[in-house]
Each structure stands twice: as structure tokens, then as C-alpha cells.
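Sat 14:20. Reprocessing the chain from the morning session after the first attempt stalled halfway. Input below, unchanged.
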Amino acid sequence: MSPAGLTARNRGLLARLHQIDGPFTADDAASALQVPRPRAQRLVRYLADRGWLARVRRGVYVAVPLSATVPEEWRADVWRAAAQAYSPCYIAGWSACEHWGLTEQIFRDLMVVSARRIGFRKGEVQGTPVRIKVVDSARLFGTVGVWRGSERVDVSDPSRTVVDLLDDPSMGGGIRHVAEVLEEYFDGAHRDEELLLDYCERFGNRSVYKRLGYLLEALGLDEAGLIGICRDRMSSGVVPLDPGIDAAGARDSNWNLRVNARIDRVAA
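Finished this time. C-alpha cells:
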């Protein structure tokens, strides 16, 4: 259908904006339309106010399909929009856990790991809160592409997801939920000890071995060989089991951890 309320000229400009691949800025629009930036800026705001462009975040837009019945209510696929807005990046943490079936919890925020140097750690994509963890580009490994409509979006594979959570438990909603994810990982079809250890080594933070070994023992998982490897590879300094919890906790000299959270076995 033709966008209601637009002049023929603006409909033509909107059609050209649809040819831009993914989210775009006013600068991108100016280049695509070959018009001065101030004019492009006024145009994208005008179209956004009328629902024919959706704001995925401040200053970044995506064209609403011309077939949308109620353009003001249309929403872009949040994975695709976030992947384009924060590229290079991957979907991570609790969002990856939900995708792989490693948790039954539903999180409102989308978790993204990005190598883009941005000055904020919280964003929003069309009303969906986004948590962004900024890392060096060398840390963008252990991902797989999944189809979201006609586009592929990178998401951490199950083993890499676990390593991210062991490195930064806040990416999994805290160490107690990380323990639940770890138990599901070892009890389920995604279990791959060799790949998990490979990622731990490649990641380079030896605190992940402390948390992994401690959790395996605390959860009663019979992984003596893996526990021994974790003990051999862990670093000597003492770190908190969950850095996001203020409580100091008792020191566990076996794992060089400040155990500041109680871990209970989840599965029967």
C-alpha cells in the first residue's frame, strides 16, 4: 500500500530509504538520497514521527515495511536491529541462554557483546532495553549465525555462553542463575567439555577455572577429571565468586574464591 499522508515526492524518498541495508543514520540517508544532511535529518524525523521509520536507538532508524497495516505499531526483529546497531557484536549472556534452552527464565533485556567502542553500556532498541558489554575484537569468537528472517545474527554457542557467564556472572543474572545454567549445560545435549576448556584457555581469564571448578563441586556434578584441570589451571589470586554481590564471603582456599553466594543443586 502507499504510505498514507505522504506526498508523492516523500513516498519516493521513503522508497529509496528502503534500499538501505539495515539501520541507518541521517548521514546515511543524506548519502543515499543525495541531499544535504540538514534536509535528510528533517526528513527522517518527519517520517519517524508518522511511523514510516522506526527508531532503533537515538539517531538510528530502520524503514518500516510499506505493507505494515499500522506502521506506528510495527517492530523490527530486536536481534537483527541490535546486531546492526552495535556491530561487530553477538547476542550473549542470558539472551543466548534463552535461545539454547539453558534457562527457563525470561529476561526483558537483550544482552549483547560488542567490539564497537561506545560510551554507554545500556541502550534501547524500539522499547526493548539492551545491555552492552564492550570487549576487544579478539574476544568475538565461539559464535554461530542463526537466521532471523532473511538475515543471520551471531549468537554465542552454548559453550562460549557458559564461559562468558563464568567470566562475568552478571551476564547470566548472577552466580546463582549461572549455576542453574551450568547444570543444564552438563545435563543436556549441548555438553562439550573439550570445547568448553578450549574456550576457557582462549579467553585468557583464569578466574573462569575457579568458578567452574567450584560450581562443579558445589552442584555435585561428578566431573573429577574436569575439576582437576580447573584446579591446575586456575590463577593464584583470590576473587569473589560473584563480583556483583557486595558481601565479602568466606575464603575457599581450594579455589581461591570469596564465596559470597550460596549455591544449591537445582536438578534432582
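The CA atoms of residues 139 and 203 lie 7 Å apart.
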